[in-house]
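Re: that chain you flagged

S.,

Sorry for the slow reply, it's been a week of failed gels. I finally had a moment to sit down with the sequence you sent. For the record, here it is as I used it:
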Amino acid sequence: MKAQRISAILAAGAFSMGAGAWQTAAAEGPHSVSANIGVVSNYIWRGQTQTDNQPAVQGGLDYAHESGFSAGTWLSNVNFGDDTNYEWDIYAGFGGAINDDLSYDLSVVYYAYPDGRDTDFAEIGASASYRWLTAGIAYTVYGQANDAPGVVDDEALFIEGDFYYYASLDFALPYELGLGIHGGYYDFDYNDGGNDYGHVGASISREAGEFGTFSLNYDQVLRDTYDEDPKLWIGWNKEF
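Prediction finished late last night. Pasting the structure tokens below so you have them in one place:
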């Protein structure tokens, strides 16, 4: 969910990302604090598995202020086929509503892989939502891969200059069901488009009261130089 952990990221379909949660907040006041935990059968981020198609346990801690400012942190296990075992994200953002139909979010996210080598990167992002439509962009402002041994002339992915564009549609269905449709396009600075890719996905979710929210999800990359097999996965999250 690198995911999508403040609303600008969640709109990308990370959702990511998702998570589940316990939440503690004052009955009245400008501040709220929440923590979250969730389980997914496959951690998909921007169309691609982060766990080699295996399950993940995820959770985080968030702070929000009535002004629109928010900040937090989020963790998940990952499997990149090396010694990298977990991801730790730190993020902050500011958002608000212009009117009943239109809102916006600004964000900064640092993706850390403490037991990996030269894989951390950071993004700034912006998104806007109009009723059931959300669209946004993320720009990579820093990437450790740029300074990795053997990298010459920015020959790496997830470095400064990468762009990610995304959009999603979210609908409320009968029987407390929700339908989400999303898509994105990764425009890497490296290799003049040789590594760029698009992806699409959809999810059906249902809230189950104190038992949290369950979802059935589909994701697929639209370029044959990547794993383009359809990914079907299930998720659970809870917030209280």
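What I noticed first: The chain has one helix and 15 strands.

Talk soon,
D.
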